[in-house]
Amino acid sequence: MHIPGKFKQDNGAELEGVIRDYPFATLVTYSSSGIAANHLPMVLTEVNGKKVLQAHIARANPLWKTVSEQSEVLVIFNGPHCYISPNHYPTKQETGRAVPTWNYVVVHVTGVMRYVQDENWLRAFIDNLTTRHEAGQPVPWSTSDAPQGYIQKMLPAIVGLEIDITAITGQWKLSQNQPEQNRLGVIAGLSCEHDSQYQQVAALVKAQMTAK
């Protein structure tokens, strides 16, 4: 990923925050069959003091047969993003010199992937994944709510993935290349939109300005 200096994100807490807040990721792999992309919910956790990503796929997915164990993979996490109109820039009114662009937050994780078929690992992972995503429900569902033995019978239908992280890079493209008046214009313009993505990007642009 090409990252201009103004947009580079080095803060580990911010990078991991996007992984946790936007866990539905794109797993990119390469094998003799070519390039493949799978879209999976990921969990960032620690194993033996080392940070890893965990996920699972259906056993019917050929990934675990075509991509070798210990292969290097890329995982992409997309945070908030939205279109930026030149109309948000006060300088556009003065000079007309402005073009559209896109603001976004993205995190790339590279690592080495292995497959897990141990039922105890798979059960613990499914319990963890469910607990995380049910936390906001009025009455959180638990795997124990399923009929006795039902979840256990389904475990052979999935294969676990564990990715030992080797690098995390991030790009926060939030109008940092614009003068202050244009960034304020972006905040004002996006804040008037009803779409939550625009509101989130507006908040991020504002936070970026405050941090500087």
Automatic annotation (TrEMBL):
Pfam families xrefs: FMN_bind_2 (PF04299)
Gene3D superfamilies: Electron Transport, Fmn-binding Protein, Chain A (2.30.110.10)
PANTHER family: PROTEASE SYNTHASE AND SPORULATION PROTEIN PAI 2 (PTHR35802)
Protein name as it appears in the record: Transcriptional regulator
Species assigned in the record: Oceanisphaera marina
